[in-house]
Amino acid sequence: MTIETIYNTFLTCSAVCTDTRKITKNCMFFALKGDNFNGNTFAEAALDKGASFVIIDEKQYQKSEQYILVDDVLKTLQALATIHRKSLNIPIIALTGSNGKTTTKELINAVLSKSYITTATIGNLNNHIGVPLTLLSMTKATEIGIVEMGANHQKEIEFLTHIALPDFGLITNFGKAHLEGFGSIEGVIKGKSEMYDFLKAHHKTIFINKNDALQVKQVGNYKNTVVFGSQTQLLKAQPYISIAYKNEIITTHLTGTYNYNNVSVAIAIGEHFNVSTKAIIKAIESYIPNNNRSQIVKKNGHHIILDAYNANPTSMHAALSNFEQLNNTNKVAILGDMFELGNEAKSEHQAIANYANELQIEQVILVGENFNTTTKHDRISYFKSFEDLKSKFDTFSFKDQMILIKGSRGMALERIMELL
What we know:
Blueprint: H1 3-10, E1 16-17, E2 28-30, E3 33-34, E4 37-38, H2 43-48, E5 53-56, E6 67-69, H3 73-88, E7 92-96, H4 101-112, E8 118-120, H5 130-136, E9 144-148, H6 156-164, E10 168-171, H7 179-182, H8 185-192, H9 194-201, E11 205-209, H10 213-219, E12 225-228, E13 232-237, E14 240-245, E15 248-255, H11 260-272, H12 277-286, E16 295-299, E17 302-307, H13 313-325, E18 331-336, H14 345-358, E19 363-367, H15 369-372, E20 380-383, H16 386-392, E21 402-406
Parallel strand pairs: 1-2, 2-5, 5-6, 7-9, 7-10, 8-9, 10-11, 11-12, 17-21, 18-19, 18-21, 19-20
Antiparallel strand pairs: 3-4, 13-14, 14-15, 16-17
Helix pairs in contact: 1-3, 3-5, 4-11, 4-12, 6-9, 11-12, 13-14
């Protein structure tokens, strides 16, 4: 069966699905494979639960015309997404970067959805499976698509851009993330800049922060750009950031000066798509972060900056710097290991430990095997694991404190909330 025929069949379905636990009536199920599962074995169950068709790549599971046999389910999903993207004929905005991708995507969506019907990446489904699923979730009603793209090695962004075929793109920043896969910060810059390479090659539009010299250098003299960074001014971040914009003050629910650029690009994109100033301001002010990303939570007298979704050396340094600048006294930073740093893990964890030791933060607690192997500072408390910290948590007398909680996803430091 040709991919065009499969696409015509897809158009008769209500949605696509890759998980039998989330089957919806009349969906098309893609029997993807993973390290520990074979989706082909779930094809029959998907039909029993209401799927209209299942895409499989192992002939022994084919039992009726509802089973569509292909050479490779994943490649079919990706090819189908590109065909669908072309058929929609709508502007697609793609973004990547080392830090702040998901928050920026949510801000852009909040702004554009004031004037358009938008479809954006759900959560951080930003890889070789998530990007196709995002595209296939777009309908004829969608007026603008917003696609987040993540990567941990070279050529991944290049691959994703050729699936999504974006008309507009941006990179939030270049940072020390996924060094294990990229090899170095230079590798990160090269890998993320594959976004720029695609946009330039296809004469598409780049949104560029004029205040980020590294990005300006990567874009070079390419003319089809929308420059931002002068429309707004950061006023304060105590703890939420306030921004001056067109003789108005935007008061956000975002903490950290590092979120200023994320807001700025959302405003620039809103302006480019002719969203009114009033609607832009309302969208930014109404956006409340969640999912452990720069959330401020009040609990038992504590003000907690819960930023435990992920961490890398760049974002960790920025979070600590911002935390020190807050006016509050009696501050505690609880930091967890940063993953995917490869050969740089030891030196990067040592650098963060050294930096935290220098700051005017009353108490620093480091959690994880990487932090535990660094050269120790007397004023810092070290724990090999979360369980180790949990067993000794009662020895700390926390009372009415400002607490920063940050670590990589694998550390799951949001569990500390249960201990406070």
